[in-house]
Amino acid sequence: MSLDLILRIGTKLILPFILLFALYVQLHGDYGPGGGFQAGVIAAGMVILLAITFGHDAAQRIAPQAVVEKMVPLGVLIFAGTGLIGVIRGRNFLDYSVLGASAPHARELGILIVEAGVLVTVTGTMISLFYAFVERGR
């Protein structure tokens, strides 16, 4: 089918740009709209597009289900661990001043780490939901 070929080639061409856009949204989240949640959904959308175009097995090779299932608690651990550093050092939860950098840089570093945790959790959750729906239909 000629349309299938066009779809596959178009998907191969656009997938790297989707990932690049997800990273842009993640890193730009400190300065404007965006952040971990939006970037996580975009990254998961990339895997879902891959699965729709090339099949579930192709997506499983890129993002195996065992890895995806570990991403959800890992992201929560990154988020909570960043907050607990402040508590352990006698400050408030998510007090970024204890991260060792100067005041404005510590805040930026803390937000970047927390947003990375959100990215990992949201990406893992969205892909897990998609895999669950795919497995249910088999």
Would you kindly provide a brief summary of this structure?
81% of the residues lie in helices and 0% in strands. The protein is mostly helical and 138 residues long.
Biggest sheet architecture: none
Stretches where pLDDT falls below 50 for ≥5 residues?
none
Q: Tell me, rounded to a whole number, the average pLDDT.
A: 88
Cα-to-Cα separation, first versus last residue: 24 Å
**Beta strand count:** 0
Number of helices: 5
* Helix/strand order: HHHHH
SSE class? mainly alpha
Strand content: under 5%
Any idea how many domains? 1
Report the radius of gyration as a whole number of Å.
18 Å
Notes on the protein architecture:
With 138 residues, this protein is an all-alpha fold. The chain has one domain (2-137). It contains 5 helices and no strands. The protein has helices spanning 2-28, 36-54, 56-62, 65-88, 103-137. It is elongated and about 55 Å long. The mean pLDDT is 88.
